Amino acid sequence: MKPLIACHDCDLLQHKIPLGVEQISKCIRCDAILSHHKRNTLDRTLALSLSGLILFTLANVFPFMTFQFEGRAQINTLISGVIELFDSGMLELSILVFLTSILAPLIKLLGMVYILVPLKFNKTPWKLKSVYRAIQTLSPWAMTEVYLLGVFVAYVKLADLAEVIPGVALFSFASLILITAAADYSWNPEMVSEKLA
Amino acid sequence: MKIKITSAKKASLIHCHLCGQLNRTRKAKELSLLECSHCDATLHVRKPNSISRTWALVITAFLLYIPANVLPVMTVISMGHGEPDTILSGIHALMESGMWPLAILIFFASITVPMLKLLGLIFLLVSIRLKSKWRPKERTKLYRIIEAVGRWSMVDIFMVSILIALVKLGSLATIEPGAGATFFAGVVVITMFAAMSFDPRLIWDAIEEEKK
After folding, report:
1. Nearest of B63, B43, B175 to residue B118 by alpha carbon
2. CATH 1.20.140 region(s) of chain B?
3. Among A44, A100, A11, residue whose Cα is nearest residue B203
4. Rounded to 10 degrees, what is the CA torsion of A30, B196, B127, B63?
5. Residue B3's closest chain A neighbor by CA?
6. Cα gap B41→B34, rounded to integer Å
7. CB B128 within 8 A of CB B206
8. Per-residue pLDDT tens for A45-70?
9. Residue of A153, A155, A161 to mutate, testing the B interface (most B Cβ within 10 Å of its Cβ)
10. Chain B residues near residue A94 by CB distance under 8 angstroms
11. pTM value?
12. In CATH, what is the architecture of B49-211?
């Protein structure tokens, strides 16, 4: 008997068909994407998530933006907003911004590297199931790309008021978004689920 | 060849929402304790109490939507003079300084998206209640859009967090966050949870009942 899969959106049972490179299988009833065979998924995702971690470090260490106004300069980093919200007594908001712009993207990247390095050497990482579940659950809360749009809006709002100088961290952060988008794309949950059984 | 259309539910199988593995349904009694054989995630044939949970979250989000738009999200204090900014007045300021594309973008992300998400979810909930057979494929697509687009509403919250950190020039100019921001973040987070607790497979269950 051929292996079966169920569509995650409409629950239809259908046969799992073997896919060629870069082929997509869609649900015959509701068009949901069931499976996507990606080229070189393990190597690519590993390389991308490792570079993502490097960029993440740069984005957190270096100044993000500098605000200059009548000879006074205010340098801030990625976490400044979180600290500032916390100091203004907005605890819930600072936790939310911390989670979505820093913690969730970091855990996602670390988790991917943690899983992929042993897989690369044909080993099964310790607590694979828990780490895998954490990544899948946290994914919707990693919002770096939305954060960058927020940076852009803030920049435009301040631009005619004073000089805003983008820092190294801002460029690292922007590259991080491209890298994580590419990593998310090449990440194929199937390569992990094969090891889960 | 005869093609039989069956859902996993009817075939006594459960699809794991985290890893996609199909698991055999055991006795109904054990159902609440069932774990995926692959990744140990808790399994549900359908998301638990999907309809009532989604309704509750949608109504909560609607209530929060009011203070989120009425209260200021931030206050610009310059020379001891404070100027509160709500989401709408922020958009208005962008329009006045000629930033039309950005104003439209923020209007879309902060006002249109949360509203359309909530109305879309209500539409889906009502259509399931009526056991509608109308365009299930398009309704499923609507759900996918609702689920994907919600995160972009966070842009205003991020903007506030960046502005308050950057503009700290003592008596010259400071920006302080307002209560509206917390309510607005509440709307975004709760609509995300509402979309997550909705189960699109319920749309198709009504169609399968018909065939019986």
Report:
1. B63
2. 49-211
3. A11
4. -150
5. A14
6. 9
7. yes
8. 999 999 999 999 999 999 998 888 77
9. A153
10. 161
11. 0.88
12. Up-down Bundle (1.20)
